[in-house]
Amino acid sequence: MKLYRLPFVLRSPSEDTEDKYLAEIPALPGCRAWGNTAAEALENLQSVATAFIASYQEHGDPLPNEVLGTALDIDASQVVSEVVVAA
Description:
Blueprint: E1 2-4, E2 9-11, E3 21-24, E4 32-35, H1 38-58, H2 65-68, E5 71-73
Antiparallel strand pairs: 1-5, 2-3, 3-4
């Protein structure tokens, strides 16, 4: 199993985002999701990113280098949770 740590951008509600939060992953062009709250936008983005990666794999397309560079091979039975910290 691979785990991808993908940086995202979160935009606050505005006229440009249809008054919703907008979250997107620049390394996956077109990978974006909206939500009424920041948490909802991020939850939706996680589902969309998973579908994007699955689509790349199903079609035999190589993932962008920015995505491949974040991949970690893990044993899923050993992962309890993860914390990401920006400093």
